[in-house]
Amino acid sequence: MGLVSQDALNQLQALMDQVLLEEEPLQRTFQNVHQGCVAETLTRFLKAREWNATKAHKMIVDCLKWRVQNEIDNILSKPIIPTDLYRGIRDSQLIGLSGYSREGLPVFAIGVGLSTFDKASVHYYVQSHIQINEYRDRVILPSASKKHERPITTCVKVLDMTGLKLSALNQIKLLTIISSIDDLNYPEKTNTYYIVNAPYIFSACWKVVKPLLQERTRRKVQVLQGCGRDELLKIMDYTSLPHFCRREGSGSSRHSENGNENCYSVDHPFHKQLYNYIKEQSRIHEAVEPIKQGSFHVDFPEPPAEKAEIVKTLESELHKFKISNENGD
């Protein structure tokens, strides 16, 4: 770490020590954020604010207040019930943990192209997304850190674009909410984004969006050929490859005959462990407060200016495609 970044870290640490001393609720939720990796956590927020300690301090405090106001610390004790509803969400919000990189980073697979988000309200999908974030940060990453005897605070994401269509336009609002929550409250948690199975529509959209991204974000995105198997095998074993990367041209699917292979499936070990963990936490909390049916409502943040511009550009590009298709060009 350079002198400038170390100075920024020291300055941010001093600012946080002061605010946490004065506000105990923020101190409690900050413990769930850093999980013992305080310096690494502060560094993430500094990176997100270009090493400006004052801006990073405001970002962390806003994040902690959002967590307290929305009771994020309790979200892992709020199961999505009944089970059929949860299964519907898993079938339409395709995400799962396929394994770990050789460096010990969790590998999350995301079916961008085939996720439909049409089985529940926006609030349920946001609840599900935050629960996976919190389970990653409070259970998966601390466990990986313990196993490798060093702080592991980020993950790898493999984004499958199979099936990406113009109908993606209908999902932009929800995806903007989810990505804004991540940008503001879970910054710099992804080490690298690998894009696989990219159709022409993605390539065209990426061309116009890429220049709008900050340099640190652009460096994280790697667009791989085909299913990306050969490139991904350089950083992970075959057993950790997402199911849609295991055979060239195999593509992706919502379902697989073997739930152990399809990391999106509610029957995959990751989702079984996650759901069982949430149910167990709910039983612990039930003595204090009975579990209610219904989604866990979270305040949706306004997207950052950079995000708003990207969304506007993306919508414009997709509209052009739509018009072009309708005209038969």
Structure description:
The chain has 329 residues and is α/β, with parallel strands linked by helices. It has 2 domains: 3-69, Helicase, Ruva Protein, domain 3; 76-280, Phosphatidylinositol Transfer Protein Sec14p, CATH 3.40.525. The protein is built from 12 helices and 5 strands. Strands 1-2-3-4-5 form a 5-stranded mixed sheet. Strand 3, helix 7 and strand 4 form a beta-alpha-beta unit. Helix 1 (3-22) packs across helix 2 (24-34). The N and C termini lie far apart (53 Å). The model is unreliable at 249-257 (pLDDT under 50). It holds the Pfam family CRAL_TRIO_N. This is CRAL-TRIO domain-containing protein. Residues 82-242 form the CRAL-TRIO domain.
Summarize the structure.
By secondary structure, the protein is an alpha/beta fold.
**Alpha-beta classification:** alpha/beta
Instruction: Give the mean pLDDT.
Output: 90
Give start-end ranges of low-pLDDT stretches: 249-257
Number of strands: 5
Number of helices, where a helix is a run of at least 4 consecutive DSSP H or I residues? 12
**Proportion of β residues?**
5-15%
> Largest sheet, described in full?
5 strands, mixed
How far apart are the first and last residues' alpha carbons, in Å?
53 Å
In terms of topology, how is this protein built?
Elements: H1 3-22, H2 24-34, H3 38-48, H4 53-69, H5 83-92, E1 95-100, E2 106-111, H6 122-148, E3 155-160, H7 172-185, E4 190-196, H8 200-209, H9 215-218, E5 221-223, H10 229-232, H11 269-286, H12 305-326
Parallel strand pairs: 2-3, 3-4, 4-5
Antiparallel strand pairs: 1-2
Helix pairs in contact: 1-2, 1-3, 1-4, 2-4, 3-4, 8-12
